[in-house]
Amino acid sequence: MKRSNVFRKPLSLALTAALLFSLITGVFGAGTPKAMAASPEETRFLQLYDQLKDPASGYFSPEGIPYHAVETLMSEAPDYGHMTTSEAYSYWMWLEVLYGHYTGDWSKLEEAWDNMEKYIIPVNEGDGKEEQPTMSYYNPNSPATYAAEYDQPDKYPSQLSGQYAAGKDPLDAELKATYGNNQTYLMHWLVDVDNWYGFGNLLNPSHTAAYVNTFQRGEQESVWEAVPHPSQDDKSFGKPGEGFMTLFTKESNTPAPQWRYTNATDADARAIQAMYWAKELGYDNEVYLQKAEKMGDYLRYGMYDKYFQQIGSASDGSPSAGTGKDAAHYLMAWYTAWGGGLGSTGNWAWRIGASHAHQGYQNVVAAYALSDPEGGLIPSSPTAGTDWATSLKRQLEFYSWLQSSEGAIAGGATNSYDGAYKAYPAGTSTFYGMAYDDAPVYHDPPSNNWFGMQAWPVERIAELYYILASNGDTSSENFQMAKQVVENWVDWSMDYAFANSRPVTDSEGYYLDQQGNRVLGGNDPQIDTVSAPGEFWIPSNLEWQGKPDSWNGFSNHTGNPGLHVVTKNPGQDAGVLGSYIKALTFFAAATKAENGSYSALGSQAEQLAKSLLDAAWGYNDGVGITTVEPRSDYYRYFMKEIYFPNGWNGTFGQGNAIPGSSTVPSDPAKGGDGVYASYIDVRPEITNDPAWSYLENKFNTSWNPQTKQWDNGTPEFTYHRFWSQVDMATAYAEYDRLINGGGGGPVEPVAPKAPTGLKATAGDAQVGLTWNKPAGAESYTVKRATLSGGPYTDIATISETAYTDFDVVNNTTYYYVVSAGNAAGSSPDSAEVSATPTEAPIPAEGDLTVQYRTNDNNANDNQIRAQFKIVNNGDEAIALSDVKLRYYYTIDGDKAQQFHCDYAAIGSGNVSGTFVKVDPALPGGDYYIEISFGAGAGSLAPGADSGEIQVRINKTDWTNYAEADDFSYDSTKSAYADWERVPAYLNGSLVWGIEP
User: Fold this and answer.
1) Where is the Fibronectin type-III domain (predicted)?
2) I want to staple 379 with a disulfide (CB 3.0 to 4.6 A). Which of 293, 449, 643, 733 is the partner?
């Protein structure tokens, strides 16, 4: 590979020196507590961090949400710059992880996760607003109704035909058992941050940001052809009486109001990947690490076919419904989606996976973290770790299968050919029964022609190569696959990447060799270059030829002699550059971790990474690293491309009628009968954008409709995409961390935040205290007072997050706070709690005993779950209709409640519950649920027990309970044991246990 002119120092070194001087003299941004930086790369990371977090830069909304871009007039995946994506949030996590590594301040990471949970994970985050209000009605034995996918938007809406019965969802039961409910803990992929569309947030109207969606109509529907619509559709907008649903699906009845969310699996996997590195770099707050584990638990839905059909069963055009994990391809599919009804008739819900897997969405680091004990993030569900271990190997095999003979990674595979489970054409290459697809999911433009879809995933493989090598695993098949894929890819990509020189191309973007010939593949091409100090160039697009050989295991892998790539269009995409540099950096570091020193290719990768970083810094305009982009596709703002069926008329959120009055007839060749509208027709507010007049003038004076060319110059824009800036910032940090050994030295320590979740439980001459650990806490000081608000006296300094105070007198009320400390100092005090110890009552004893257990280890969720057995210890039969149990708890916000008996050996229909408010409240109980039994429950013979009785309660608004201080709750009882705190009554008399 040719390396002339690559490693010259760029002109930006003067700026670096100035920044270093600023750090030394204390002039650096106030947001960074470092006194000085150890290297130019660390300096630049911290500078970019401050630029991103500076309100004047404009990266964040008033609600603290990262915009997709600072600028607003843009159309790519989001069709407006002030949207946000789950991708942006996942990059935010990564940014804060490395900031925590350099500064010791992990609070920014936690604040980012909290914001993510509040605005883009549609769950009740503690504000009482249910954003998945009917998920409890989901039937895992009938997840969804089949509707075919089509090759053109004009063929939609698609009939909900049920032609293929959905298979069974094998995850729902264990997720409900693990977390107490099945509300999906994943990000929805797209949010209208400033409510630009105007739909509003129906289920949480206090939020300006609103859940929305765009792509819904097959592989050809680009951003230019999509109809934005609300994810919470009560039919206030769209077609009267139908909302937007009838643009996408057709059914026999009028569609019901509904909510629906779509997850992009790569984004959630990236967030988990970031939390893995946080843990590796010293972050230790289990509260947030467990949130990442929970996200990984639900992310397994990305491993399943869209309608839970058996993998490979549709190769002949006749799919078979899955009965469990035979519907799992164990890859990261393009999406998962779930939804349900709204309003009084909304007692239904659904869920789908996705049949299409793209190589660019796989994340082997997340799979490793979620499966390997060394990864440290194995989720709580019983089969999650095993599933992710299978996925890790399957993803590495997937990359090996898709790697071209040159080294680039081809598209992916599908379990539903043409989106309709069609029979595979003769000669189709397969991977575990799935069909090869060179451009999975979308074709405008083809989904695997962008070089970013190479840099993103291979950077993650390079990370895994580094992780395994650092852990001493240099022989496993997983290691061999990771190393081979990334080594081949780096060797290929470096032939087409340049710093301080510019590759020579022809007018169509093909690289040329020194003889002026097009380079159309092959190994080690000699690309012609010209000197260009301070510039960087990497590929933009790829063309594909041939197909991989069918997969038959790594030991039988052929190297794909019939699969080739043509590399094209050198460009200056800053975000892709950041990912590419990280791929080179982790690869170089991995070769050193494996061998003790850099390999020859590793050394070249490290030097190219350094030169690209230096060159990129010269493009920092004070807001971020960016280049001018020609946008030849922006003529499509003015084209009529958005399909509406004939007779479909409605209202958009910006107040305009859609499709409007200036439509044109649709093209019959595309299979529809309707009209086309333009981007402007659907979203008229774009014409008020500050950049609109520039674009409109350029279109009117330069666009040639006959030649379809920009005769007088292509419109050019300078964009500051959030994800791109984070990719560049983290590239500097990772190079410094892995190559320079940076970030591991002393930093100005940061005191921890105040502990949260302090709970006090009174006992007999004792008070038990528990609290959550804030990041960075090394010790805790427990303080007590006899008056609310103090003054407090220090009573203990400990390292654990629990303490029992035995120095108390019964019937006296005590008040407690706790502070956290480390070498930097102490936190503020926690919120105050109180408790009044009392003499333990003498339990009632009789012929009945109540045994109790719970699988609800989350003391702060929206349901209380308990299981009981009633034992007859006497010598006479007892009618269960004469027995009542009481379970005491605190309601934590008085709301209407619901009782459920999920299972009872005596018949769940024979079990009922009555809510009773305790006034005045007792310690650990301001409510109890009284459980009684109908005549059909029968009687208990002497020595017999009732069998298992599983009950569950929730508030009708699904707000959380705080169970840790509940009188009858004991999270440690995972097996049945006698439990005096669930009293039993026979004919109204207490015969077992104690009351609070």
Assistant:
1) 751-841
2) 293
Distance CA 794, CA 482 (A): 54
User: Residue 2 pLDDT > 50, yes or no?
Assistant: no
Are 11 and 618 within 8 A, CB to CB?
A: yes
CA–CA separation, 524 and 544 (whole Å)? 18
* pLDDT tens for each residue of 363-421: 999 999 999 999 999 999 999 999 999 999 999 999 999 999 999 999 999 999 999 99
How far is Cα 424 from Cα 70, in angstroms, rounded to an integer? 45
Grouping H, G, I as helix, E, B as strand and the rest as coil, residue 460 is helix
In degrees and rounded to multiples of 5, residue 212 shows phi and psi of -140, 170
Residue 197 exposure: Cα atoms within 13 Å on the Cβ side: 29
d(CA 666, CA 640): 9
Percent with pLDDT over 90 in the chain: 86
Could you tell me which residue, 838 or 361, shows the higher pLDDT?
A: 361
Mean pLDDT taken over the chain: 93
- Comparing 87 with 1, which gets the higher pLDDT? 87
User: pLDDT grade, residue 128 (50/70/90)?
Assistant: confident
Beta strand 878-879 with 939-940 is antiparallel
Residue 700's contacts (CB-CB under 8 Å, 6 or more residues apart) are: none
Longest dimension (CA), the chain: 102
Measured between its terminal Cα atoms, the distance across the chain in Å is: 78
Phi, psi angles (nearest 5°) of residue 40: -60, -35
Total residue length of the chain:
996
For residue 742, name the pLDDT band (cuts at 50, 70, 90): confident
Helix axes 40-53, 722-735, angle to 10 degrees: 160
Q: Residue 979 above 70 pLDDT?
A: yes
pLDDT at position 36 is 47
Whether 59 contacts 240, CB under 8 Å: no
Residue ranges with strand state E in 493-551: 498-503, 529-546
How many CB atoms are located within 10 Å of the residue 825 CB? 12
Residue 115 has pLDDT above 60, yes or no: yes
Other CB atoms within 10 A of residue 692 CB = 16
Q: Which residues are catalytic?
A: 87, 266
DSSP string for 889-938 = E--SS---EEEEEEEETT-GGGEEEEEEEEEEEETTEEEEEEEEE-GGG-
Which residues, 6+ apart, have CB-to-CB distance to 17 below 8 Å?
A: none
Confidence of residue 9 (pLDDT cuts 50, 70, 90): very low
Phi, then psi, of 121 in degrees rounded to 5:
-95, 110
Alpha helices in 518-599 (DSSP H): 574-595
Q: Report the C-alpha gap between 757 and 688 in whole angstroms.
A: 47
Query: Is residue 147 packed enough to be buried (19+ CB in 10 Å), middle (13-18) or exposed (0-12)?
Result: buried
Interaxial angle between packed helices 107-119 and 286-299, expressed in degrees from 0 to 180 and rounded to the nearest 10: 40
For residues 217-244, average pLDDT? 97
C-beta separation of 864 from 889 below 8 A: yes
| Closest to 867 (Cα-Cα) out of 787, 807, 988, 951 | 951
Structure tokens at 270: 């990236």
Q: Which residues pair with 825 in a beta bridge?
A: 822
Does residue 718 contact residue 4 with C-beta atoms inside 8 Å?
A: no
How far apart, in Å, are the Cα atoms of 336 and each of 138, 352, 505, 628?
15, 6, 41, 35
Do 743 and 654 meet the contact criterion of CB atoms below 8 Å apart?
no
Residues 760, 769: contact at Cβ < 8 Å? yes
Residues sharing a CB contact under 8 Å with residue 649, sequence separation 6 or more, in sequence order: 239, 657, 658, 659
483/487 Cα distance (integer angstroms): 6
Three-state DSSP class for residue 552: coil
Under DSSP, the state recorded for 403 is B
Q: 431-445, 539-553, 857-871: which has the minimum mean pLDDT?
A: 857-871
Task: Convert the pLDDT of each residue in 160-188 to its tens digit.
Answer: 999 999 999 999 999 999 998 999 999 99
